[in-house]
Design brief:
two-stranded antiparallel sheet; 2 strands; 139 residues; elongated; 3 helices; single chain; alpha+beta; 63% helix
């Protein structure tokens, strides 16, 4: 019973230490107020179209990256098979073992699209307001 209590205490303390060590996590929400003029509204629509094109470009880049990662995995696998056959050893890996798309899930591309959109909006006469709040591990 005492050992269980000590274990629970240690577990709670460990969680508390990790929570403090991580620090607070903040998120920012943006509100967009459109311009009143017709010309400004047309301009803001163009900002939106540019942002959507940017997202599409990010998607294409990401898909190309995944395809390149598979292509590279197949090349490495063929090389591995050749080496194993030359050495007379058993082939115990698959192309999946060489697949490494670690750089393909790049969130910075859509973030750049959003930042560009937030810069474009005020140039059309609209307003962008940022609200930052603590989302996790708040003190």
């Amino acid at each position: 019973m005492l050992a269980q209590r000590a274990f629970r205490y240690m577990a709670v303390m460990l969680v508390a230490v990790f929570a403090v060590a991580c620090g607070s996590v903040y998120e920012t929400v943006y509100t967009f107020t459109p311009p009143e003029s017709e010309r400004g509204k047309i301009c803001v629509n163009q900002c939106e179209q540019i942002k959507q094109s940017c997202y599409l470009n990010c998607n294409f880049e990401s898909q190309a990256c995944f395809q390149d990662a598979w292509r590279e995995a197949r090349i490495q696998y063929r090389e591995y098979v050749r080496e194993m056959e030359e050495a007379g050893e058993e082939i115990d890996k698959t192309p999946d073992d060489f697949y490494n798309p670690v750089f393909c899930d790049d969130e910075s591309c859509p973030n750049r699209c959003d930042a560009s959109h937030r810069s474009c909006y005020p140039m059309c006469g609209g307003q962008v307001e940022a609200y930052t709040y603590c989302a996790a591990f708040c003190e």
